[in-house]
UniProtKB/TrEMBL annotation, chains A, B:
This is Putative NBD/HSP70 family sugar kinase. It holds the Pfam family ROK. The keyword Repressor does not apply. Belongs to the ROK (NagC/XylR) family. The keyword Transferase applies. Keywords: Kinase, Transferase. Gene3D superfamilies: 3.30.420.40, Winged helix-like DNA-binding domain superfamily/Winged helix DNA-binding domain (1.10.10.10). One of its GO terms (molecular function) is kinase activity. SUPFAM superfamilies: Actin-like ATPase domain, Winged helix' DNA-binding domain.
Length: 411, 411
DNA sequence: TCACGTTTGTTAGTAAAGCTTACGAACAAA
DNA sequence: TTTGTTCGTAAGCTTTACTAACAAACGTGA
């Protein structure tokens, strides 16, 4: 048998677009995308699914690129003007897109009619349950701008009382806006499953609390609930446009949110990102609330850092350098834990979220340093570690992104 | 404005199937799937893309469930009998599927015509470049069975000479089978980009070697090249049916392959899984070839372990326990590096690949122990660490899976 | 000024894909 | 023999996105 004859009858390229995978909602497929490899096919695809994907694509294009003509969208998406017109007509009928009148600038040809996502059409309610003393909430517009805020003191409330506080907060926020609300997004501490059930949140005394159902039943709006750090990384992903992203959230506890290949990582037990109680190094460390010694949280959590700093004598000659050293040590510990993760995932970007006065200085620098010396420089050359761009509002904004993404397929 | 009026005009469920994402090749979308969250839509979807997905779905169904009737496939996929008949007709015309005659068992109704993937129609050539002294190759059938083997001694060849050896090996394997070959899969050490260019493989003296093009040009068959550990984890994924999987490959070096959410992780610099040179612990360690101290590879690589074991006095009274301790220490070190990764990704399954006489005993047990004590037991309760089920042939079989997956969308 | 080219958005018709409906064939059980 | 079941196929419909063609509206250059 000649080489010629042995050649597979199957076309050289294999199945069309095999190996491509850019799916989104509910699937995807740009022929030129090459990063991911083929997967097991799961579930049929009907024409209407393709339609809803293309619809989301149009929304996404408008959302990120702003006002433009139908023809512009057609060029950008690769769909034809006819198809775009058709999809846009539907979106206008649904009130998601509006016509803005004709384009001003003078060009040859028929003047374009500008269209855009109707950014004033909806608000989103975002809730952040990650703080220790209070719940934060905000009404967020479609661009991620905070329209109004509200908060409620916890006063030690746990269990059902805490759930009631969340509902109260949401009720106040809903009352504060006249604009239709697209949905409610909640970032909760603890382990949250994909259906919005808080499996476990020790601080709040929650076990298997179906927050999604509770809020949905009361407010009859779409509700999305996820872990606070996992929510936070969505906010960062929205602005960073990086496909792989790790966000470390330092507060009363330490948690992480992870996006890989543009996709949030949930974890088999829905506990991805829970690195607070991973033991750091091989030389012991402070005793942690969980009983172990040298957990990341025992090194890095805000209460521990402030306690250490407060114990310093501010009059001492070396007060400043002692402060630096405390923060640098915490940063090194963070670097030690992150190094294997950064190495294994070949991450290109890590984001720190938390009090900038603690994180953004000696701590940050020590973490970078430790990461560089503990991983292979050659592979992680372009690793970036930076502070969040969202300041205090990462979780609130991330909750909004989660709703946006879940309801419109946009982020 | 009443709550009623404020309610979003957008349907409660958001866009159809938003939040669902089960895409495969080139996309997917089972409406009931809930794990992953919505993503940015990327790229349009045309009807023919949907078609090729459904085609792959049929192939996958037949491949994993074996011979069955068209009606069975219809029930299993959710597509109608008509559509299945149509798709199957195409697959039969392409020679990928064959009719096996009527079903034997006595049931009411018209007897079913059994169909199946024509498992004898194609062979796959798999190549494993990860060993230090020789290149391994095999002809693999569609079920992953090894049909024939070949190997070539490296004799210190590097650079282009090594590429020639790969081609020689492939040529011999191709000559050994009369069956049409679906494609060539190669697992190479080092950093390999998604186009099959070996960016860097120090052992082989390769920098930016376009192995995919070299082999494709010579043999005119589909060629897929990837990192050896990343290839190996594909083999394991094929049998384990776990959505999250980490495989640690211990040989002359130490590397890992990672599948998250059913998807191989490549990494921003295509170096995902390169954990061999991550520093372990905070107490120094043996000097590594890379210059650092205490790299995982310096603790765990096979040459280092065998050297340590060989240095033992076999006559000593405590020889056995000394041996155990050496392996246990290596296991602990592995556990220390894996703990942050397991915690951050909430992995449910970790697989060890390498010499069983070294890995499958004290080393394994120490790793499990270390993982348990260094992560949060509550979250990683059902973590499993096990030896590979594929023995020596992980890379060869994984290379076959890669071709199968890339060419047919099946795995 | 006016013909010409360009750009936009729409209309009309076509091709592809999967659906529903309907039917003949083949079998088991009554 | 009758009845009910199952299989695979044929015909026609619906959805979707495409191509082709066109009118409207604009700048440009002779």
């Amino acid at each position: 048998m000649t080489t010629e004859a042995r050649r597979s009858q199957v076309s050289e390229g294999g199945i069309p677009n095999a190996g491509a995978d850019v799916l989104t909602v509910p699937f995807g497929g740009a022929p030129m995308f090459t990063r991911a490899r083929a997967l097991r096919p799961t579930g049929k695809v009907l024409p209407e699914h393709a339609r809803s994907h293309n619809r989301a694509l149009v929304l996404q294009t408008l959302y990120t690129s702003g006002a433009q003509s139908r023809a512009d969208v057609a060029r950008q998406t690769g769909l034809t003007r006819v198809t775009i017109s058709d999809l846009v007509a539907g979106l206008i009928a649904e009130g998601l897109v509006i016509e803005l009148g004709q384009r001003e600038d003078a060009r040859p040809g028929k003047p374009a009619t500008l269209i855009d996502v109707d950014r004033a059409a909806f608000h989103i309610v975002g809730v952040d349950l990650s703080e220790h003393q209070r719940f934060l909430g905000a009404v967020v517009d479609l661009d991620g701008g905070i329209v109004s805020r509200a908060e409620v003191a916890l006063d030690g409330a746990t269990g059902d009382a805490a759930v009631v506080l969340v509902a109260d907060l949401v009720r106040r926020l809903l009352a504060s806006t006249e604009t239709p609300v697209l949905g409610i997004g909640v970032g909760s501490p603890g382990v949250v499953d994909p259906l919005g059930v808080v499996r476990s949140a020790p601080n709040l005394g929650w076990t298997d609390v179906d927050l999604q159902a509770r809020l949905h039943d009361e407010f009859e709006l779409p509700v999305h609930v996820a872990n606070d750090a996992n929510v936070a990384v969505l906010a960062e992903h929205g602005s960073s446009h990086q496909d792989d992203l790790l966000l470390v959230k330092v507060g009363h506890g330490v948690g992480a949110g992870l996006i890989i290949g543009g996709r949030p990582v949930i974890g088999g037990g829905f506990a991805a990102g829970e690195i607070g109680h991973v033991v750091v190094g091989t030389d012991g460390g402070p005793r942690c609330a969980c009983g172990k010694h040298g957990c990341l949280e025992a090194w890095l959590a805000v209460p521990r850092l402030t306690a250490q700093l407060d114990a310093l004598d501010p009059e001492a000659a070396d007060a400043a350098s002692a402060r630096e050293e405390i923060l640098a040590e915490a940063g090194r510990r963070l670097g030690i834990v992150l190094a294997p993760v950064v190495g294994a995932l070949n991450l290109s970007e890590v984001v720190l979220s938390g009090p900038a006065e603690l994180l953004d200085g000696a701590l940050h620098d020590a973490t970078v340093d430790t990461l560089r010396t503990r991983t292979m420089a050659e592979h992680n050359r372009d690793l970036r570690l930076r502070m969040t761009e969202q300041a205090e509002d990462v979780v609130l904004r991330g909750a909004a992104v989660m709703v946006l993404s879940g309801q419109l397929g946009v982020s």
